[in-house]
């Protein structure tokens, strides 16, 4: 099974509503998308080609290479089909592997049982062929097999990523209620920020938005911060391909860039977390860190750029009066201090959004975990044009 050289169906997954931004990333890397759907895209490529994608994609979660598609009604059917696969050509029999799954089958009450059937089939096959039992468990830091099983349709994949790609590796200190890095990248893409004008991030929390903005502007790919992927633990892996791709990542970093990114927060601890995470990412020199109320955040007066808030959402029902005031103050801040900028507020609370006092030009849909959210865009006109209409 020459998976590093033979093309097969590859599914790149992402969180809901990140698919449009993932599609643009994949196309920008020169790949042809066979199919796009709500939680990912489908390509027809080799595992070797998956290496470049793993290192470059910001909005992806997993990159799955299909090795077998089949019908299975029962767990015994599943076991039989899995055992027939030539695992001795894919997994080091003296190594370690794990199994993940997405299962919707009437004969399975828990995905863990399906995972166990897959694991048993692989172990039994390798014991018969090699006489040694490989180790297996829940850690996804070595070889990873993924099962997709819906009704009678089953597909077995090699997960080339392992640990999710949605985490970009630089955030050693998460901070309070952090935004996932893949989501932050998607939000920045949605703003259409030009990567040259100021990027202002008041109420920065752990700094993910500000740091991702710096990474995107300087073309620093997530692969610069990670040295282990599941594709490295598949038989036939050539480490020189990986290191060649990493050299490209290093060469494409934009240095000596003039960029104004401001990250502010009332919490001194939050700003320190942001500073330390930015240092790990190598972009601390590009960010101005401020401990202050968001209304005191310094905003360059050249009248162009992006101001992005990710405030607390509060409870959807029974909105706290304190947060109502905060949202009103955010609207006032953008009206008075950010003229000429594009303003954005990311929130999962539509009731609080009404307190902003501005008419959103766009309401871009996202999910934060399972919470339905919106990125609200405000055109903050300067000079003769009206600043904005009030929210209806």
From TrEMBL:
Keywords: Methyltransferase, Transferase. InterPro entries: RlmKL-like_Mtase, RlmL_1st, SAM-dependent_MTases_sf, THUMP_dom. Residues 62-160 form the THUMP domain. Signal peptide: none annotated. This is RNA methyltransferase. Pfam families: RlmL_1st, THUMP, UPF0020. PANTHER family: RIBOSOMAL RNA LARGE SUBUNIT METHYLTRANSFERASE K/L, RIBOSOMAL RNA LARGE SUBUNIT METHYLTRANSFERASE K_L. It comes from the Bacteria. GO terms for molecular function: RNA binding; rRNA (guanine-N2-)-methyltransferase activity; rRNA (guanine-N7-)-methyltransferase activity.
């Amino acid at each position: 099974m020459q998976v590093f050289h033979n093309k097969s169906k590859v599914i790149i997954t992402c969180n809901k509503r990140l698919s449009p931004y993932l599609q643009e990333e994949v196309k920008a890397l020169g790949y042809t998308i066979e199919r796009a759907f709500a939680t990912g895209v489908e390509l027809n490529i080799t595992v070797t080609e998956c290496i470049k994608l793993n290192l470059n994609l910001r909005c992806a979660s997993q990159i799955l290479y299909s090795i077998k598609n089949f019908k299975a009604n029962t767990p015994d059917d599943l076991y039989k089909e899995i055992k027939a696969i030539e695992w001795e050509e894919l997994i080091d029999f003296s190594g370690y592997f794990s199994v993940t799954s997405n299962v919707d089958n009437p004969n399975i009450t828990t995905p863990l049982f399906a995972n166990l059937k897959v694991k048993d089939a692989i172990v039994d096959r390798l014991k018969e062929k090699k006489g040694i039992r490989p180790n297996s468990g829940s850690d996804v830091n070595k070889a990873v097999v993924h099962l997709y099983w819906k009704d009678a349709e089953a597909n077995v994949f090699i997960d080339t990523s392992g640990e999710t790609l949605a985490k970009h590796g630089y955030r050693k200190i998460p901070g309070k209620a952090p935004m996932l890095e893949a989501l932050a990248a998607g939000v920045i893409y949605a703003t259409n920020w030009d990567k040259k004008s100021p990027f202002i991030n008041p109420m920065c929390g752990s700094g993910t938005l500000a740091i991702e903005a710096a990474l995107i502007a300087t073309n620093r790919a997530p692969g610069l911060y990670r040295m282990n992927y599941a594709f490295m633990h598949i038989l036939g892996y050539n480490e020189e391909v990986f290191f060649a791709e990493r050299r490209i990542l290093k060469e494409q970093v934009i240095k000596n860039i003039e960029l104004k990114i401001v990250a502010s927060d009332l919490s001194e601890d939050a700003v320190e977390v942001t500073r330390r995470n930015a240092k790990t990412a190598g972009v601390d020199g590009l960010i101005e860190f401020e401990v202050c109320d968001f209304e005191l955040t310094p905003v360059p007066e050249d009248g162009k750029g992006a101001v992005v808030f990710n405030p607390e959402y509060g409870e959807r029902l029974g909105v706290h009066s304190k947060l109502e005031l905060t949202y009103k103050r955010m609207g006032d801040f953008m009206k008075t201090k950010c003229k000429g900028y594009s303003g954005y507020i990311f929130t999962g609370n539509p009731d609080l959004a009404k307190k902003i006092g501005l008419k959103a030009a766009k309401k871009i849909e996202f999910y934060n975990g399972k919470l339905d959210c919106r990125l609200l865009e405000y055109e903050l006109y300067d000079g003769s044009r009206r600043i904005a209409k009030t929210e209806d």
